[in-house]
Amino acid sequence: MGSHTEDYKIPSISYAELFNDDDNVRCLATTQLAQALKAYGACRIRDHGISQDIIDNCFEKSRSFFERPLEEKVADYENSGTTTNSRFVPFASEIVRGELHLDETLEFQHSVYDLPGTWSEPGRQLVETSKYLHEECNRVHLNLLTCLSSAMNLPRSLSSIHSVRNSFFAPYYYCFKDEEDNNTLRVPPHIDPTTMLFCFQDSLAGLEVADISNETGNISTTSVKKVADFIPTTCEPGEFILLIGHVLRRLVGEFKHSVHRVKRPPGTSGFHLNYWTVPDLDTPCDFGNKKEDVAGYLARVFPAALRNTVHQDR
């Protein structure tokens, strides 16, 4: 995992200080946040007010759901009545841009919680605990967008173009199916087609962010992974990782999108809890020679199974 210095190179920002009553404290924290996103497209967020009990409970319920035979999980999902607002991806079944992702996930769009569902007991408990953490992430996300809009003097607040319905939450399960598997790389380097992503890691962590602090211009996964060092993002207790997606870079050109990967020790299993968002579909997101709105962008890059469930309404 690298040295302790490398583990904590990604800056840690106090969410509480971003909204402190003291102007000096608030201004310093906001400046630090903007600097981190301009340098790395990522930072650690502490003092966010999300209960550790909620986070721990979601890890526990994720384990209860995922550590079952595959056929049980597939049947659970297919019989749930929520397949238009969720997506189950079995282990190592997804290939993105020709590269295999060695993980398994159950993705929830926010509107899934409005459906009655007919999950098994492990599925029902995972949906319920995911809802609590999803709601808390929505709160933090919208406040961060408001803070960044003010810091960058944007003419329109980023929070005004983000619907709660266009937020997603997913436990990602990293498991080894073959005892002889010695590949520590579980998810290859990539860029997210999102506004922001929050990652809550278990004790084994694994998320690594490319050091793009000296990179300028077009920051592609292909070019970055050839030259950049990847920094382990081990968190202090109570922190999560904030990653900037390509959509936000299209909206705020001064920020960089994060290039990141997941590496985990061989022979281990565990979880990341991921939350992410996309803007309203009619939001222009021109970038270089690309002239398109969010709908056009997502039509090119977003997972097909959820593409048509993203909404413009608030």
UniProtKB/TrEMBL annotation:
Query: What residue ranges are annotated as transmembrane?
Result: none
Residue ranges of every copy of the Non-haem dioxygenase N-terminal domain listed in the record: 10-111
**Any Pfam family matching the protein:** 2OG-FeII_Oxy
- Annotated ranges, domain Isopenicillin N synthase-like Fe(2+) 2OG dioxygenase: 173-275
Q: Which PANTHER family match?
A: 2-OXOGLUTARATE (2OG) AND FE(II)-DEPENDENT OXYGENASE SUPERFAMILY PROTEIN-RELATED
What family name appears in the similarity comment? Belongs to the iron/ascorbate-dependent oxidoreductase family.
- Protein name per its UniProtKB record: Fe2OG dioxygenase domain-containing protein
